[in-house]
Amino acid sequence: MSLTAENNLIHVEGQPRVFNRIKVLAVLMVPLAMAVMAISSISVALPTIEHSIGASDASVQWMLSGYALAFGMVLVAAGRIGDALGRGSVWITGMAIFSLGSLACGLATSPMMLNLARLVQGLGAGVYNPQTTGMIQQYFKGQARAKAFSIFGLVISASVTAGPLLTGIIIRMVGPENGWRASFIWNFPLGLLGIVLALRWFPFESERRRARERREGTAQARHLDLDPFAIALLMAAVLCVMLPFMIKTGPSFALLAPGAALMWLWVRWERSYKARGRQPMVDLALFRHRSFTHATAISGMQFLGGTSIFVLVALFIQNGMGASALAAGMIGLPNALISAVTSIATGRMVLAKGRTIVIVGLSCMVAGVILTAATAAFTIEHGYSFWWLMVPLTLIGFGNGCMTGCIQTLSMIEIPPAEGGVAGGVKSTAERITTAIGNAVTTAIFYSLVSSGWTRALTSAYAAITVFIAISLALAVFDRVSLGRGALKERRA
């Protein structure tokens, strides 16, 4: 497809300049990868961080969870603000916060400083990520949107695996003391480049329209209603639900009850807010779109299990087999490559066969997880090379590539472009919550049994993952039976 083809051009009312969809997508994808890698890569760097700045076990836990917590708390609010004020300017704001947070991480001299910087980093990622979904929804239609979301899925899938590998390479090249710092700092110049390119290539359609109305005196006197009380309620609810599964202490689980109460109160508030003729933070009519609701449930259940697969692999390879962090990263390389290729390939078929492809992908993931557990057991019991794990992990990568790009397209196919940011935020928040729960459950199973042997611990943890993904598969089958094999007819804004 030509970069200058007419169907790639964006015309903004009152603006003589013409913008290009492909350039917009290119700017969006690299920071998306950076946000995902910031989650997956730090586990490889933790041993060197502990030694470098004398971090305690509690500090290490917050290095892992603080980013994800801040990320998850602001997603929906950021999506709503972007939909209301303009996605381009909010994206730049989030990118600036993320870049500064990354720089602060690399310059940290104490565990407290690093943990605070990780919170800032996560906040920035949570602000700009919903704008990515919203802008794809806004500027791409039909098959072009499906292709864009397949690239979105490619970036997500590949980044999960590429993050630990890249960090392992950086630490090997630069050395342990400075390598972990470099793994954070490299985000800063990339972030600045992203901001420069965004200022040049983003259409800023909403922002230009509002400015033109003010300049011409045609702006309607309207109150910008961002529903701040709902924002506070939802952020508090997400905090109460996610935090116990991240810090994993007995007393912390008492927060689940107030978290559920706050979520109930938020739902009641949003309904009453809309009934009074106001604009709610999230119009709960969003969940009447069955494609969105089904896809969010399928994806959430898959994240409940799928994100823990490589956590266990890394623990096994480094702690169980005594291999390096680089080896732990390298073993997932075929997974990342096949996931990337599959995500692009299935993007061409999602509108016709998307729901069927999701079922195929999840079936492959179930089979791959079972084979991963079996391969690890044979490695332990019979002395096989742990590199054989590449085979089942590649099958998982194929399944993940089938599922990720398709489910993103299916989730957004009925959503009006004006609500793209908040819809993407809702789906991502569900995924962040289930990721926190899944990691807590599977690692708890593993650590409770590892004293009885690696085989039993790994087999039991992977059994839990298999159950979670099997439930996601059952939901996908229900979705296929209910709504057909492909995407529903797109709703026009």
Description:
This protein has 2 domains: 6-214 and 281-483, Growth Hormone, Chain: A (Up-down Bundle), CATH 1.20.1250.20; 227-280, no CATH class. Helix 1 runs antiparallel to helix 8, helix 10 packs parallel to helix 18 and helix 12 (290-306) packs antiparallel against helix 19 (454-483). It has 19 helices and 2 strands. The chain is globular. It is mainly α.
Global mean pLDDT: 87
- Count structural domains: 2
In which order are the strands of the major sheet placed? 1-2
Series of secondary-structure elements, N-terminal to C-terminal: EEHHHHHHHHHHHHHHHHHHH
CATH H-level superfamily title of the largest domain = MFS general substrate transporter like domains
Largest sheet: 2 strands, antiparallel
Computed structural class: mainly alpha
Overall geometry comes to globular
How many H/I helical runs? 19
